[in-house]
Design goal:
Oligomer: single chain
Helix content: 25-40%
Strand order of the largest sheet: 1-2-3-13-4-14-20-16-18
CATH superfamily of the largest domain: Zn peptidases
CATH architecture of the largest domain: 3-Layer(aba) Sandwich
Low-confidence stretches: none
Structural class: alpha/beta
Largest sheet: 9 strands, mixed
Strand content: 15-25%
Mean pLDDT: 94
Number of helices: 13
Radius of gyration: 24 Å
Amino acid sequence: MADTEEKTQGQLLSEQLSFKIKNVWETAGEKELAEAGDFAVEYKRFLDLGKTERECTGLCCEALEKAGFVPLEDRLDSGGALQPGDRVYRNLRDKALLCAIIGERPVEEGFTIVGAHLDSPRIDLKTNPLYEDSGFALFDTHYYGGIKHYQWTAIPLAMHGVVIGRDGQKKNICVGEKDGDPVFTISDLLPHLAQEQMEKKAGEFFSGEELDILAGSRPYRDGKVEEKVKLSVLEILNQTCGMTEEDFASAEIEFVPAFKAQDVGLDRSMIGAYGHDDRSCAYAAFRALLRFASCAGAPGKTIVCFLSDKEEVGSMGNTGAESRALENFLAYLGRLTRGPGFSTSDLRRALEKSSMLSADVNAAYDPNFASVYDKKTASWFGRGMALSKYTGRRGKLGGSEANAEFCHRVQAILDKNGVRWQYGNLGRVDKGGGGTIALYAANLGIDVLDCGIPVLSMHSPFEVISKIDLYTTFRGYIAFLKDA
């Protein structure tokens, strides 16, 4: 239609009443596209260095220290008051993190929070894992989170974790990430012998007990020793990590994919990597808070970033969102800003006036599996930040649902700041579902809405996201922290 041709009444009405979700790649300016590319480079580096919740927490703490944040415990121990603009953080057992910038307004008026989780599905070792069988040394494992077992076989795996020796010294382990490092793998059955296996349902190809990891095959050269291959592996672990077999009982050792984050597609528009769920949203949320740390002055309300652990297994434990970690942190901020008069009722009032984005990924529409998606409400690659009014499964069980007023408030903030957003339901009704940390914040009285980045192949060893969705979501978190 020519530019000079007048629009019909129907066309004008459609523009006024319809919600058109556009592809951000087409609408973004050159500056935004360049910034999205730079942001993706930094994010890929974060993924490569942070493949476990401990490593991510360490990276974030380093960045916080450089940005002038101080441990909250220092203020609690000294009794020093917090002033507007002050920056504090709390490292929760090296596995989760809370950080805040104190605002100008009293904390009784509420906090503005963005929360995500740092853990991802993986393969853990059992407490007595190393054994020998048929000339192999193997690690006995227990998978963590919701995985398709078969996806974790016949791929290179890296060993990450922490071991505390008999002397009480803690040693970090990372084998399989550097050039020249050995890697590990879970063997699969060759197709020539897999007739019976292939007749099984996909969920029965491998049981959880069959996901054992190859650790070695070279025996220790001593004719009087039993289990020579196992002993050889133990010797290497002792020489490199200072550990004995007994140390496995207390160690935290995780196996994750050994490959690095990479661009996907000839146009390099996507990122393929392990751990997008939920480190893509965690990174965007954390970087959004750091953006405020680079500015002079203090925000209006106190802003908080909560990066939790254990979401993939129910958010339990003292580093998960189900714990009182967030509540305690906010109580400490209230006490250090308002003095000894800050009461439990003041905290409850502050919580009820607080607002939060539960920053978690959503399932991107996949044309290869169209039957499980509702195209009208699915999140799509390239269309920006996905807002999920509710989560849960079947009849919205086990999830959280934001009220209409808060949904509108968030949408208005995004519109005001020119941040593209879209719908984000997780599949067709009764086809599945899932939950996030949102319900635990809602239980405290906080207004909370799920929003994040669409992901393909979620929970697989190689998930895929769009670079423009990552950057748009980062901008969305900034807008929320600024204007909520």
